[in-house]
Amino acid sequence: MAEAVERLVPDGSVVAMGTALEPAIPFAAGHELIRQGRRDLTLVGPISDSLFDQLVGAGCVARVCAAWVGNVSEGLGHCYRRAAERGEPRPIEVRDHSNFSISLALWAAAWGSPYLPTRTLLGSDIVTTNPDLVLADGAVLVRPVAPDVTILHVQRADADGHAHLWGPLGISEEAGLAARRVIVCCEELVDAAVVLSDPNRVLLPETKVAAVVHEPGGSHPSPLQGHWRRDHGFYRDYAARSRTPDGFQAWLDEWVRSVPDRRAYLARLDLEPLRVRRRLPSVPADYGDE
Amino acid sequence: MSDGRHTAQELMVAVAAREIRDGDLVFVGMRLPILAYGVARSTHAPRARALYELGLLRDRPPAGFLGTMGDPPNVAGALWATRMSNVMALMAQGEVDLGFIGGAEVDRFGNLNTSYVGDPARPATRLPGSGGGADIAILARRWVTLMAHEPRRLVERVSYVTSPGHGEGEGWRERHGLLGGGPTAIVTTLAVLRFPAGGGEAYLASVHPGHTVEEVRARTGWDLRIAGGVSETPPPTPEELSHIRRLDPEGFWTRRG
Question: B-contacting residues of A 118-137, CB under 8 Å?
Fold first, then answer.
């Protein structure tokens, strides 16, 4: 993880994360960005369930391009508020979207379109405050948003980057296709024969994937279908402690700065109650060819 | 809390559930609407279906607690797991009958602000933003919002329209090309406000048990119109309460703060 982030996410990068919404958020990658002291990032996403708040609070972020930033089960993002309201620890620029319009902005980039017209956001002040949205001919024109790098957490992938993500996909496909390159973090690193047995489930072409990181538990505290439940208590604790700048710094020291890697982070948690126990495998599809 | 038998949030869930008609395709938001869908589906709307913006279609809600729409039990047993843009596509075609949106501020025309209090360039309060709220407000055939009834939340005019309601009054949505019909109700901790057919200004339709018209008007930031016959909001039935407490056994959404 440290090497992938060091090599592929320099200061000033446009980074999409949390693209499946509440599940499969690549927290391990986000925490590595904080540990490496990354600066001036532009974060791209739909809703961000606490990860963007942490990166903003750690001073890594210059701009946010998203539909919602907070803590889904607890409410407001306190670091996001301090940055937007008081410029602490540094000012941020926000380009507001709705969930639909950030998806369209990524599809526009993925398809090489100068813009995509839509009826969503007609009558919303979001069109007046985000320069990437233009009202014309009774429609809203959504300009493309192209990430330098999209970071995904998935259930399984092979070493070439063929990734299987299941459950709701959110905006993961368009975020991957729109990006110059993709970092795939996976719960399980598997043989190519496993993922290529079901090519319809392969999320993105291997040409987009610049790195594959085997990072079990890398989505904690967000859920991952078939593997992890959502750790509601962890989100609640984060919300309470991040209310003050000092509280946030103490949280960051405990869970990010003093932790060398994800393995050490997971060792501090009681993981057993979070493991998904009930197995519900799908029936394989038959790709028979003769 | 009205008479100790249920909380304000439990009443709001029951009221929201009754807004769901049998056969509706419902765009379910976070928090109380997740419970409302489960109650409606288990009582009067067994043929309703639910869309979740992250990319899910369901019929039966999962049996137990959901902290978010992306919790694994909400995915297992889904009718469709897909990308967000496919779900939004259905709404953009006018196929979503009812949506729910949480609000921080609402005004007399049902416009919602979940973005900025004060100047967006230097806001007094930065709220989380639209999420899918603006999309629901513009594209769903009708929608309902739920919020705490406080003067700072029910304001004369929102300073920033994240999710447009009836804009500046009757006919505004048509003039601006908005697809859906707009808000039909504001469900608060004290009362239910409704809108005239065709849009326009909210009026007080019913007051929750234990509260008064005077109290509701005093805690509303504009001169709230009153329906001819303001009724008392029917409290949750024992059946509704049993479903709410089955879906939220720890009171995570309905019995804290």
Answer: 118-126, 129
- The pair of three-digit structure tokens given for residue A34, joined into one six-digit string: 């904080």
Burial class (CB in 10 A: 0-12, 13-18, 19+), B33: buried
Residue A26 has pLDDT above 70, yes or no: yes
- What does DSSP assign to residue B212? -
- List pLDDT tens digits, range A52-72: 999 999 999 999 999 999 999
Q: Is pLDDT of B29 > 90? A: no
| pTM of structure | 0.97
Written as one string, the DSSP assignment of A39-68 is: -SEEEEEEEEESHHHHHHHTT-EEEEEEEE
Which letter does DSSP use for residue A207 in this model?
G
Residue A286 CA from chain centroid, whole number: 32
For residue B35, what pLDDT is reported? 96
Per the CB < 8 A criterion, the answer to whether B165 and B206 are in contact is no
Residue in this structure with the two tokens 């949390």, named with its chain if needed: A18
- Are the C-beta atoms of residues B244 and B10 closer than 8 Å to each other? yes
Neighbours of B129 (CB within 10 A): 27
Structure tokens given for A10: 């320099």
Using the Cβ of A169 and the Cβ atoms of chain B, whether some distance falls under 8 Å is answered with: yes
Mutate to test the interface with A, among B32, B83, B130 (most CBs of A within 10 A): B130
Calpha distance A278→B73 (Å, rounded): 10
Coil/strand/helix, residue B247: helix
